[in-house]
Amino acid sequence: MIRSSVDLSPAARDGFDAIIDVRSPAEFALDHLPGAINLPVLDNAQRAAVGTEYVQGSKFLARRTGAAMVARNIAAHLDGALADRTGGFRPLVYCWRGGQRSGAMVAVMDQIGWPATVLDGGYQTWRRQVTAALYDTPLPHRLTLLDGPTGSGKTALLTALAEQGAQALDLEALAAHRGSLFGAMPGGQPSQKAFESRLHDALSRLDPARPVIAEAESSKIGGRVLPPSLWAAMSAAPVIELAVPLDLRIAHIVEHYTDIAADPTALDEALIRLPRHHARAAITEWRAMGARGDIAELAAELIKAHYDPAYLRTGETRNRAVLKRLAVTDLTPAGLADTAREVIAALDARPRPA
Questions:
Q1: Are 164 and 341 spatial neighbours (Cβ–Cβ below 8 Å)?
Q2: What is the pLDDT of residues 194-214, one digit of tens each?
Q3: Which has more pLDDT, 314 or 141?
Q4: What is the C-alpha to C-alpha distance for residues 332 and 348, in angstroms, rounded to an integer?
Q5: Cα gap 179→314, rounded to integer Å
Q6: How far apart, in whole angstroms, are the C-alpha atoms of residue 206 and residue 170?
Q7: Model confidence pLDDT, tens digit, residues 82-139
Q8: Residue 121: left (phi > 0), alpha (psi -120 to 50), or beta?
C-alpha cells in the first residue's frame, strides 16, 4: 500500500530517512524542500522532449517514451545513490504536484519493500505552506533586532548568541549575502523562492514563546526581498544598539571580508557600483587603495564616507524602540560571549505582550 502525507512540519520531515525530489535538476535548483536530495526520474532535456511530444505530437508516444526514460533513471538511482539503503529505508518522495513522477518512484520502492511516502500535492503543497506563513499571516515570533553600524560584529554576535542557547535567526546566512555592497558570497544567492523556503524552515524550528534575535536589515539582502510577514515583524521589533569603536570595526571588516579583498577584480567592480552621489575623485582614490591592497585604509574611508552616513540616514526613518544600548569594546570570541550574555539578559527582561 502506497502511503501519502501532507504533513510538512519539521518533526514530520525530520522523521524520514531522506526527502527525495524526483523533479528535473532545473526545477530542483530553483527551489526544493530543505534537506531534499535530487534523484530526477526525467532530466532537463528528457522532460522537455516528453513535454513537447505530448503537446505537439502523440500523447501515447510521449507516455511510452517517458515511461521508458523514467524506468531507466529509477534503475540508475537504485544502483547508484540508493544502493546502500537497507530494508527499513523510509523516504518522503515528491514531484511537482504529487503525480506521475513521484508515483512511479514510490511504486518501485513499494515493490522493493521500502515504506516510502509520497507527498500529496508535491512541491506545490510545500510552496503553499511557505506562502501562507510568509505572505498571508502575521509571524507569531517575538523578534528583537541587533542594530549597529557596519563592522560592529552583528553576525559574529548572532553566532555567539546561538552558542549560548538563544534563538538566533541569521538572515544573511539564509540569503547567502552579507547585506552590503561588498556582501557577495561564493556560490551566489539562492532564488527568491529558495530563500523563502530556507527562511520558513528556520522560522518553523523556532519557539514563538521564546525571544528571537536577528540582525537589523533593510528590506532586501543583496537581491533577495524579505517577505511581507517578516518585514512587518522586523519593522515593529525593538532593537539592541551596539556601539563599537572605529578601530575595532575596521579590524573586524579586514578580518571577515578577506574573500573579496583577495579578489581585486570583484573589489573593483563593487567600488564602481557605489552610489553616484560620491565624488568621482573619491571613488577613483578608493579604487586605487583596493588595487594596492590597502584594505584597512579603504575600509576606514568607506565607513566614514559611505556606510556611517547611510546608517544615520536610515536610522532617522526606522523609528524603532531601543531595548538596550551596549558599548562593545571586544570583538574577540571571549568578548562576544560576554556581550551575548548581556543581550540574553536584555531579552529575558523584555516585557511579554499582554
A1: yes
A2: 999 999 999 999 999 999 999
A3: 141
A4: 24
A5: 15
A6: 12
A7: 999 999 999 999 999 978 999 999 999 999 999 999 999 999 999 999 999 999 999 9
A8: left
Q: Residues near 66 by Cβ (< 8 Å), separated by ≥ 6? A: 42, 46, 50
The residues with which 212 forms a beta bridge, in sequence order, are 143, 167
Show which residues are catalytic: 95
DSSP secondary structure string for all residues of 80-99: TTTTT--TT--EEEE-SSSS
Q: What crossing angle do the helices spanning 100-112 and 59-79 adopt, rounded to 10°?
A: 40
Contacts of 40 (CB under 8 A, 6+ apart): 21, 22, 23, 24, 25, 28, 73
Q: What is the DSSP letter of 184?
A: B
Nearest to 332 by CA among 190, 193, 156: 156
In sequence order, the 6+-apart residues with CB closer than 8 A to the CB of 58 are: none
Considering Cα of 275, then 281, then 284, then 289, what sign does the dihedral take? negative
Rounded to whole angstroms, the Cα distance separating 130 from 136 reads 9
Q: Residue 216: what residue type?
A: A
Q: Contact at 8 Å (CB) between 41 and 28?
A: no
Q: Give me the helices (H) in 133-245, please.
A: 154-163, 171-175, 192-204, 228-236
DSSP structure class, residue 321: P
Sequence-distant (6+) residues with CB within 8 A of 229 are 133, 134, 135, 136, 137, 138, 139
The structure's pTM equals 0.92
Rg of the chain, C-alpha, whole Å: 25
The mean pLDDT value of the chain amounts to: 94
Which residues lie closer than 8 Å to 348 by C-beta, 6 or more apart? 211
What confidence score (pLDDT) does residue 275 get?
Answer: 86
Q: How many helices (H) and strands (E) in the chain?
A: 17, 12
Task: List, in order, residues 6 or more apart from 243 with CB less than 8 Å away.
Answer: 148, 325, 326, 327, 328
pLDDT of amino acid 316: 61
Q: Are 42 and 50 contacting, i.e. CB atoms less than 8 angstroms apart?
A: yes
For residue 220, the SS3 value is strand
Q: Measured at the alpha carbon of residue 80, what is the angle toward residues 74 and 83, in degrees to the nearest 5?
A: 95
